[in-house]
Amino acid sequence: MSEHIAVPLAIRWGRRLQPTWSRERVFEPALHDVLSQTRGGGAPRSAKVLLLLLQCWQIAIVEVWRLWRGRTTLAHRRLEFGGGSSGAGGQRSDLPPARPPHPLESWIQDARFAWRALMSRRGFTLAVVLVLALGIGANTTVFTILDKVVLRPLDFPEPDRLIFLTETARVDGVETPANVTAGGFRTWRERSELIGEMAALHAATLNLTTDDRTHQLDGLWVSGTFFDVLGQPPALGPGFSPVVDRTEREIVVSHGIWQDRFAGGDQVIGSELYFDEEPYRIVGVAVEGFTFGSDVDVWLAAERDIPRPPISDGGDYTASFGLGYLGVVGRIAPEATYSQVVEEMDAISAAISEEQPVDQSDRGVLVRPLHEYAVGDVRAPLGGLVGAVALVLLIACANIASLLLVRASARRRELGIREAMGASRGRLFRLLLVESLVLSILGGVVGIVLAAVSAEFVVALLPELPRTIDLTPDFRILAFSLGVTAVCGLLFGTAPAWQAARADVRGVLGSTRTTEGVGARRTRSLLVVAEIGLALVLVVGAGLMLKSFSRLIAAEPGFDPTNLVAVSLALPEARYDNSPEIGQFFATSLEAIQSHPEVESAGVVLATPFSGSAARMDVFVADEQPDDTLDQRAVFQVSTPGYFQTMRIPLNRGRDFTEADNSDGAPAVIVNEEFVRRRLPPNVDPLEVSLHFGDFDPVPIVGVVGSVLHLGYGGDVPSEVYIPQQQMPWRFGTFMVRGHESDTNLAGIVEDAVADVDSLQPTGGGRSMEDVIYGSVQQPRFVTTLLGVFAGSALLLAAIGLFGLISFSVGQRNQEIGVRMALGAGGAAVLRMILRQALSLVGFGVALGVAAGAALSQLLASQLYDVNPTDPVVYLTAVVVLSSAAILAAWLPARRATRIDPVRALRQD
Amino acid sequence: MTEATGRRIFFHVMSHYVVSSYMDESLNLPDITHLQFLVLSGLRDGTRAGRDLRALLADHGVRRSAPAFYQMMARLEDATLVAGSYETRVDNGQAIKERRYEVTPAGERAWEATREFYQGQFATQPQGGDGV
């Protein structure tokens, strides 16, 4: 922003933000002097104006502090500025009388009075400040997570112009996102005029060889324009060269790799790293903290600017429309808009569907803002958590308001005297409101400190999020916290202040009773009803999430995860460039593993269930009638004999693969039950059906196995097709190993077996399948747990509120109860009377809560799995739980009422 | 002790007593500081602009930022020792609002009282090197 714009803007806002009492006499003349000085040159005008604003604010703060300390600017005090001190000089009679009080003085007086009043009741103040601190601190923390993960734009230049593109496929009539084919990407890039630049990407697991060791690293194959599209070129080095000029393999390494392996030196550029025994020249170091999706160590420039597919039939892969495996990121051209891009891509996709009827007839394109793609999945749950914690704070504020109402009732006499001595009702209202604001400021400050101190601890508890975050509060978060603090103070302070200011002076001064007024009693009852209603909303929400989560994890995964470990690896192309070598490696390693005495069984598969990764191919049933509504895709797996047995996936029909299903044997496939259900007519025997895919001849189905939740809990059960690993050896594979005992080091057994076959081949470390399944539901578990904590807190607060109200009411009605008991009412009758009062409040609160819960639970609908947002069982359970807690809270003071001594109560004045 | 010494000591004690009595009866400490005295001095000749007063202070080696200076002037106004006003003038075709100050009668009296105090101090301060 140029100085010609910035300076007037700063002056305008600086003027508005100056306190009224300093604007005319300090800010304006000082500004005039500064502007006059800058006409003569020297320091930039903007710098001087900024300095002026800071100085004026400093002076304003000092003035407020002086007023607080009682050093007002009355004429009969020595003025301090200039080095003088307030000496012992007496009042000079010839000086004019003191001027009217400074506008701020009365506010400062109220604040000082409020401070003294709160300090005189430290227990009460401490309790309120603690409750507020916890509530405001929790709100600050949750909002910080939402802000830094979802609300803030991505850390790229002009992030709103970044888009992520996927293909779509029709599954059960629903358009679902799918990976992009190489042919699709190439066509998009050639034909789109409104997307300035596009880059394709594909994840890779690489073996990095250094000296005599080999490590596995996570990498990303990308088009050469990848960093240009994101607008974040490497911090060091020239980056990828244009594909036409590229003469060798190029990589960009992460900041971490640069520090660990090159000690942060400049010699990194031009150095070589060996991946899969091929040399790659380092042409750049990424900016520190650069991430795109998951953490990656290296970015490799794709050879033809389009990453190679994981499987190829030997043809030109860049023209293939059959295998989807790419992600695509793009930047909208400067002159185009997002909606124009969507329209253009729809047209291009429609043209491709017509040109490629075999592979692309049912395909479309989905264009999303990159920010939406990155954080869209967590926006709803995080937003729900923010709402839930805000409700807890509301309930806490209602509780505090109720306490302050009681306190105001006890101070009616004091306030009545003040009014009798001339204080206006407005002044009394302001006095009590300032007291509430002081309380909320104390609670807010402690809450912000709590949030800052507990940030690291909270981050450790969070599930995996799409962006790495730092929970340290910044200016934006502080502004939010201060806003919440102010709102809290007004929320819980207004009602008590209003009630107290309306006290009848004559009635209060003429009476020695300190009973609560009718208005205050009604207000407290309303507050308790609101608390119960809000608490019920939270209990319902937690109940729905709990039921959803329990149904989510109740689904059978389709295999037995106990004592089962997955160990993945990727063979380097340099040493395994043909099928027999790959097949020999896996067969020999597997045989060694299976023969280990601690291993029950083992097998190899391409992609582990619950891993989130799946290769899909179009699979056609021989003699199947063309059907545009049918999704031809199936998850493509390769597996070895013993895999299904190891996983305990039932073999329902036919046979498993055997040693005879090798490269010399007849082709065979096994399908899962879901494939049979979706693709084959009911009266057809699957074992008499053949499939064909790609350019392969039709392959007969030899077995049908049970379906597994390959995509994890909550995902659709996909059709799966298994091919013998020996007939289609892939360089990527996962050893699935089941041990006899739970504490066996199965990953170590695999590592040793692999090392015996190939000492240079690393493995990726083992993961227990129980951990994999547990980790797959980390996010819904976290949300459900947190909601449960909030609901429990809300329940407790509401019960405390009701307990307090009924206790106070019993205390107020001591004499009345005494009279009733003196006239013959028994303890049971008194108990019923008190409980009736409580139940009427609970009834209203429940009605309010059910209505609000039914409305607000619709917001949770997208997070629920197989649960209706208005599930009556959940609502009924929540009502029973809340009512039970409320009745228990009311029963204690009601029981106390039955023990009132009528004689003592009647003597009470 | 010689007689002369004794007389000097007696005179010193008497002088001190006279000075103390004089101070207790007729010279209260001034209510304004030296800096404010200097500002009021500058205004006794007539109304001056704030910038000119700042320049006057700078000539005496006192440099304050514009906000600090105008805050001091605001306090002097609150104490009714000076009166401030805005005057609009045209400079190179541009209207400029300038803050101007003039001393009030109360300010004049405060200045006079301060001057009397210091003059009184100079009048009663003993001369010489040995305190007599």
Write a brief caption for the model:
The complex is a heterodimer of chains A (909) and B (132). Chain A has 909 residues and is of the alpha+beta class. Helices cover 50% and strands 15% of the residues of chain A.
- Output the strand order for the largest sheet of chain B: 1-3-2
Number of helices of chain A: 27
Rounded radius of gyration of chain A (Å): 37 Å
Q: Would you identify the regions of chain B where 5 or more consecutive residues have pLDDT less than 50? A: 1-26, 128-132
- The count of strands of chain A amounts to 23
Mean pLDDT of chain A: 83
Described by its quaternary structure, the protein is heterodimer
Helix share bin of chain A:
40-55%
Discrete helix count of chain B? 5
Reported by name, the CATH topology of chain B is Arc Repressor Mutant, subunit A
Strand content of chain A: 15-25%
The largest sheet of chain A is: 8 strands, mixed
Number of strands of chain B: 3
Q: CATH class of chain B, please?
A: Mainly Alpha
CATH superfamily of chain B: Winged helix-like DNA-binding domain superfamily/Winged helix DNA-binding domain
How many individual domains of chain A? Answer: 5
| Basic shape of chain B | elongated
Task: Explain what this protein looks like in three dimensions.
The complex is a heterodimer of chains A (909) and B (132). With 909 residues, chain A is α+β, with helices and mostly antiparallel strands. In chain A, 50% of the residues lie in helices and 15% in strands. Chain A folds into five domains: 1-76, no CATH class; 104-160 and 378-514, no CATH class; 161-375, no CATH class; 515-557 and 776-909, no CATH class; 572-760, no CATH class. Chain A has 27 helices and 23 strands. In chain A, a hairpin with a 2-residue loop joins strand 4 and strand 5 (213-222). In chain A, helix 2 runs antiparallel to helix 3 (45-68). In chain B, strands 1-3-2 form a three-stranded antiparallel sheet. Chain B starts with a helix and ends in an 8-residue tail after the last helix. Chain A binds chain B through residues 22, 25-34, 36, 52, 55-56, 58-59, 63, 73-76, 78-84, 87-90, 92, 94-96, 99, and chain B through 28-36, 50-51, 54, 65-81, 84, 96-99, 106, 109-110, 113.
